Amino acid sequence: MILKLDPHIHSNYSPDAVNSPSEIIEKSKQLNLDIIGISDHNTIEGSQLAIKETKNDDEILVIPSIEISSEYGHILGFGIEEMVKRGLSTEETVDKIHDLGGLAIVAHPYSYYRHGLFCKEKNTDVNIDGIEVKNARFILGYSNSKGKKLAEKKNIAEIGSSDAHYIDFIMDCYSEVDCEKDIDSVLKAIKKRKTKALGSGTSNIELAKYLYKKHVKKEFK
């Protein structure tokens, strides 16, 4: 079964995002997404709320997730329901994620302006399970291209993610996953590289408009 997954969405429990978990769930359903991950910065609160809200909802599956600020870059703890301390080394962060039964997926690799992994720390010999090769929030596409080359070199899952901080950007990039609609099946499919990264990315013009409204006009509450 081929299902559509956006594993990297931010709710208002991230300091730089605006929409509630409920709003994200509703928008994701409108887009016919099958699976989402609310991966907030260093907190699981938004993810937990979304999981609770969709507990008896067959229309959409929410995978527990968090975006962890490791010492040298951001890593998704995909499939974990507990906090991982920020500021740990890359290896320690990945080990903690695995100990909690999750997958370590590198978010926006090689992105200097977004604390992407493999910028300051060049060593790629770390036991990651997947890497974003289509992160929708890019300017020139350099980091996505580098991420894809590394995924091919390490033979790990290629992931597409919107990294949406506003609901209109959800699914600008996403993943197709060959799996059943349950958490265990999704995680196993990613581990087995049964993924395909899709999407053309968020318009830089629309992203600039969003940032202007948020930071200058302060239209978003």
Distinctive features:
221 residues; alpha/beta; 23% strand; globular
How are the secondary structure elements laid out?
Blueprint: E1 2-9, H1 21-30, E2 35-38, H2 45-53, E3 61-63, E4 67-70, E5 73-78, H3 90-99, E6 103-106, E7 130-135, H4 142-154, E8 157-161, E9 173-178, H5 183-191, E10 195-199, H6 204-217
Parallel strand pairs: 1-2, 2-3, 6-7, 7-8
Antiparallel strand pairs: 1-9, 4-5, 5-6, 9-10
Describe the protein's architecture and organization.
This protein has 221 residues and is of the alpha/beta class. It has helices at residues 21-30, 45-53, 90-99, 142-154, 183-191, 204-217, and strands spanning 2-9, 35-38, 61-63, 67-70, 73-78, 103-106, 130-135, 157-161, 173-178, 195-199. The chain has a five-stranded mixed beta sheet with strand order 3-2-1-9-10, with helices on both faces. It is globular. The chain starts with a strand and ends with a helix.
H/E element order: EHEHEEEHEEHEEHEH
Q: Mean pLDDT, nearest integer?
A: 95
Kindly provide the radius of gyration, computed on alpha-carbon positions and rounded to a whole number of angstroms: 16 Å
Derived from helix and strand composition plus strand pairing, the structural class reads: alpha/beta
Report the strand count. Answer: 10
Distance separating the two termini = 39 Å
* Sheet with the most strands, sense and barrel status: 5 strands, mixed
Shape: globular
Low-confidence stretches: none
DSSP strand content: 15-25%
Count of DSSP H/I helices: 6
Strand order of the largest sheet: 3-2-1-9-10
Percentage of residues assigned to helices: 25-40%
